[in-house]
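Lecture notes, unit on protein representations.

Consider one protein chain, 135 amino acids long.
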Amino acid sequence: MGLLKSLEIDYSYDIAEEFLSHYALMCDLMEPLIISLSRPDRYAGSINELFRIFHNIKSAAGFMRLDPILKLTTLAEEICEEARAMSGPASDEFVDWLLIASDQFDRYRNDIESDAEFFSPLDGNIVKIPEKLCV
Protein backbone atom coordinates (compact mmCIF):
# COMPACT_ATOMS: atom_id res chain seq x y z
CA MET A 1 0.00 0.00 0.00
CA GLY A 2 1.34 3.42 -0.95
CA LEU A 3 1.59 6.70 0.91
CA LEU A 4 -1.62 8.22 -0.44
CA LYS A 5 -3.71 5.09 0.10
CA SER A 6 -2.43 4.88 3.67
CA LEU A 7 -3.46 8.48 4.32
CA GLU A 8 -6.89 7.88 2.81
CA ILE A 9 -7.40 4.84 5.04
CA ASP A 10 -6.08 6.48 8.21
CA TYR A 11 -7.80 9.86 7.78
CA SER A 12 -10.50 9.51 5.10
CA TYR A 13 -10.27 10.48 1.47
CA ASP A 14 -11.42 14.08 2.08
CA ILE A 15 -8.84 14.84 4.74
CA ALA A 16 -6.02 13.27 2.71
CA GLU A 17 -7.02 15.24 -0.40
CA GLU A 18 -7.31 18.48 1.59
CA PHE A 19 -3.85 17.95 3.05
CA LEU A 20 -2.37 17.18 -0.36
CA SER A 21 -4.04 20.20 -1.96
CA HIS A 22 -2.82 22.52 0.80
CA TYR A 23 0.66 21.00 0.76
CA ALA A 24 0.93 21.34 -3.05
CA LEU A 25 -0.08 25.01 -2.83
CA MET A 26 2.55 25.69 -0.17
CA CYS A 27 5.21 23.92 -2.26
CA ASP A 28 4.31 26.06 -5.28
CA LEU A 29 4.62 29.27 -3.24
CA MET A 30 8.09 28.48 -1.86
CA GLU A 31 10.41 29.06 -4.83
CA PRO A 32 9.32 32.63 -5.73
CA LEU A 33 9.53 33.61 -2.05
CA ILE A 34 12.99 32.05 -1.71
CA ILE A 35 14.30 33.88 -4.76
CA SER A 36 12.90 37.19 -3.51
CA LEU A 37 14.96 36.87 -0.31
CA SER A 38 17.91 38.28 -2.29
CA ARG A 39 16.11 41.59 -2.66
CA PRO A 40 16.54 43.92 0.33
CA ASP A 41 13.08 45.42 -0.19
CA ARG A 42 11.37 42.00 -0.22
CA TYR A 43 13.41 40.18 2.42
CA ALA A 44 11.27 40.81 5.52
CA GLY A 45 7.96 39.94 3.90
CA SER A 46 9.34 36.87 2.14
CA ILE A 47 11.11 35.40 5.16
CA ASN A 48 8.00 35.89 7.29
CA GLU A 49 5.83 34.21 4.65
CA LEU A 50 8.28 31.30 4.31
CA PHE A 51 8.29 30.87 8.08
CA ARG A 52 4.47 30.80 8.05
CA ILE A 53 4.45 28.22 5.24
CA PHE A 54 6.91 25.97 7.07
CA HIS A 55 4.94 26.33 10.30
CA ASN A 56 1.68 25.39 8.58
CA ILE A 57 3.21 22.40 6.81
CA LYS A 58 4.81 21.28 10.06
CA SER A 59 1.46 21.35 11.86
CA ALA A 60 -0.34 19.45 9.11
CA ALA A 61 2.48 16.90 8.65
CA GLY A 62 2.56 16.31 12.40
CA PHE A 63 -1.19 15.67 12.45
CA MET A 64 -0.90 13.32 9.46
CA ARG A 65 2.15 11.59 10.98
CA LEU A 66 4.32 12.22 7.93
CA ASP A 67 7.69 12.15 9.68
CA PRO A 68 10.01 12.99 6.76
CA ILE A 69 7.99 16.12 5.97
CA LEU A 70 7.70 16.98 9.66
CA LYS A 71 11.46 16.72 10.21
CA LEU A 72 12.32 18.84 7.17
CA THR A 73 9.79 21.54 8.02
CA THR A 74 10.97 21.65 11.61
CA LEU A 75 14.53 22.28 10.43
CA ALA A 76 13.46 24.85 7.83
CA GLU A 77 11.22 26.64 10.32
CA GLU A 78 14.03 26.86 12.90
CA ILE A 79 16.47 28.31 10.37
CA CYS A 80 13.89 30.78 9.06
CA GLU A 81 13.11 31.82 12.65
CA GLU A 82 16.78 32.73 13.05
CA ALA A 83 16.75 34.56 9.69
CA ARG A 84 13.64 36.55 10.69
CA ALA A 85 15.74 38.38 13.27
CA MET A 86 18.07 39.62 10.52
CA SER A 87 17.54 42.52 8.18
CA GLY A 88 18.62 40.76 4.97
CA PRO A 89 19.10 40.34 2.14
CA ALA A 90 19.71 36.60 2.18
CA SER A 91 23.11 35.19 1.33
CA ASP A 92 23.47 33.10 -1.82
CA GLU A 93 24.30 30.14 0.40
CA PHE A 94 21.00 30.50 2.30
CA VAL A 95 18.96 30.92 -0.91
CA ASP A 96 20.62 27.85 -2.44
CA TRP A 97 19.94 25.81 0.70
CA LEU A 98 16.28 26.83 0.73
CA LEU A 99 15.96 25.91 -2.95
CA ILE A 100 17.37 22.44 -2.18
CA ALA A 101 14.84 22.12 0.66
CA SER A 102 12.05 23.28 -1.67
CA ASP A 103 13.06 20.61 -4.20
CA GLN A 104 12.89 18.01 -1.42
CA PHE A 105 9.38 19.15 -0.47
CA ASP A 106 8.41 18.74 -4.14
CA ARG A 107 9.84 15.21 -4.20
CA TYR A 108 7.79 14.37 -1.12
CA ARG A 109 4.69 15.80 -2.82
CA ASN A 110 5.34 13.65 -5.89
CA ASP A 111 5.82 10.62 -3.65
CA ILE A 112 2.39 11.12 -2.10
CA GLU A 113 0.65 12.00 -5.39
CA SER A 114 2.10 8.95 -7.14
CA ASP A 115 1.22 6.75 -4.15
CA ALA A 116 4.85 5.68 -3.76
CA GLU A 117 5.52 3.02 -1.20
CA PHE A 118 8.12 5.14 0.60
CA PHE A 119 9.32 8.74 0.67
CA SER A 120 12.31 9.66 -1.49
CA PRO A 121 15.68 9.78 0.27
CA LEU A 122 16.68 13.09 1.79
CA ASP A 123 19.08 15.15 -0.34
CA GLY A 124 22.41 15.02 1.47
CA ASN A 125 22.98 18.74 0.92
CA ILE A 126 20.16 19.58 3.32
CA VAL A 127 22.34 18.68 6.29
CA LYS A 128 24.84 21.32 5.11
CA ILE A 129 23.08 24.18 6.87
CA PRO A 130 24.36 27.57 5.74
CA GLU A 131 26.66 29.35 8.16
CA LYS A 132 25.80 32.80 6.89
CA LEU A 133 22.10 33.48 6.37
CA CYS A 134 22.35 37.13 5.32
CA VAL A 135 24.94 39.26 3.56
